[in-house]
Amino acid sequence: MTDFTKNPRPFYPRLSSASREIRLLHLQPGQGTEEADELQTECRLSVVSLDSNPSYEALSYRWGSRTSTVLVDGHEVVVPENLDEALRRFRLDGRERVLWADAVCIDQSQVAERNAQVALMADIYKTCERCLVWMGNTHLFDRSDGDSSGLGVGSLHELLAALSKKHHLDQPDAPPIATMFGVTRIPLMYLNMAPWWQRIWVVQEVVLAPQSLVLCGCMDHIKITFLWADLLELRDLLYHLLEVARLPGRSGAVPSTPATGQTCTDFLDVLLSVRHRECADHRDKIFGILSLVQDWGSWAPVTADYSKDARQVFTEVAVQMLQHEHGPRTLLFARGANPTAWAPHNLPTWVPDWT
């Protein structure tokens, strides 16, 4: 997890790990419009125990390097710009919205707290009412005349709705997905290029949540509920469309992550499926998938520890792999087997570099 800690934050209420406490972000009311964007986003924090069955929604977004500030309990807090944009678009008109967002709800300046809260990630996303997915603030759909119909946005909504689990249940007579591609190619291309798809943390966030609500940029009217299986189908369709149409877009297959209700049990398989996803902190190549592993078998369970550097994290994981069932397979990905590969962490030749 990237460290946004320009200033200390003494207003953070202390958490009890024994009570499985987390902070919730109470997003104050406001209109998610461009006119309201001039006003600073305002929130307040509260502390709850996951054992008390709290009611909240969890955010999924790409951190990125650009920052913004939001007001939390009257204090200016530096946050990823994408988070500020997500809060502006997801806030409600007339009442507050209760959320969990890692950049604010975790005191990023405290390593011990970061470790403890990452260990609770699985339960945080399993317990939430739904995951709010912010794919990014693309301006593809901005039109000076306010008319985006020529870009196929209306048909894009129909396509996304056809992929929605809720839509499947409510309207089984939805038109075939294949018939909708013609007028949605351009918006689909840009949706496919959203950096959110490449972030390593989104896999566990959306897999573990009961359901997800997807919102992208200025398409405020496109708010469709998905399960992870639907998002995989959408990503496969986007990739297929771009290949067939030879349109520019992100390449690479979708990781073969299971649908909601299932949990990956093979650590190496999960790691390989997401190894090309992005994270600012290389340690998150390991820490970002821990919640997907339910059965560690003969392993000593890996835990997030941000006091260790990437070299130590990768080496300790390699030792476990070599000692257990992945021994020979692990060496296929070791530095010694890829001597020309980029190696920023000065790893031993027998240790895979997952960056």
Automatic annotation (TrEMBL):
Q: A Pfam family matched by this chain, by name?
A: HET
Superkingdom, according to UniProt?
A: Eukaryota
Residue ranges of every copy of the Heterokaryon incompatibility domain listed in the record: 56-205
In terms of PANTHER family, this protein maps to: ANKYRIN REPEAT DOMAIN-CONTAINING PROTEIN 39 HOMOLOG-RELATED, HET DOMAIN PROTEIN (AFU_ORTHOLOGUE AFUA_8G01020)
Q: Could you tell me what this protein is called?
A: HET-domain-containing protein
Tell me the organism.
Answer: Trichocladium antarcticum
